[in-house]
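note to self — DONT lose this again. spent like an hour looking for the file last time. sequence + predicted structure for the chain T wanted, 178 res
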Amino acid sequence: MAKHEKTFVDFDKPYETNIIGLRGVIYFSVGLFLLIVVTFGLMWFLQNVMEDDAMEADIQNKRPMQMSARENLPPEPRLQSAPGYGVESERGRVNLELTAPQSEYRELERQWTELWNEGQKDSKTGTVVTLPMEEAKEKFLQSNVKANNSEEAQKILGESRSIVSDASAGRTASVVRR
């Protein structure tokens, strides 16, 4: 062995000597602290840059991916039919902001009843697009429509009622009564 080499094994002691260099622990701690400080500084700089870009985009209205008010609504069915506390009607927008919670339903029910009784009218020309229910029933009954009782109609009816169900496992069609 050379003179400058040290051995860490001492056969006279029954245990292994614990040699921890204090210098290594201090270097690691200082390096870790510097890494944390540099990372914090970079994140702070990046946050400021992103905030500045967002402010600039607000000023210039450059938001190609921004959702419209219609796209921002939750999927159907919605519990509130009147987004923004209002209902659109032929008379314009009905503001429901300071009314009772059921006022939205009442306004929509009024519109539906009006549509049921008077039919739907074109807003530009004023002509009736859909008939009221009672008029439609009378018009249908006056047209003397006869039921088709031919063999072909019975065959189509039978095919429409036979469907493949889960219980049949696809082997045979089962007739479902409705």
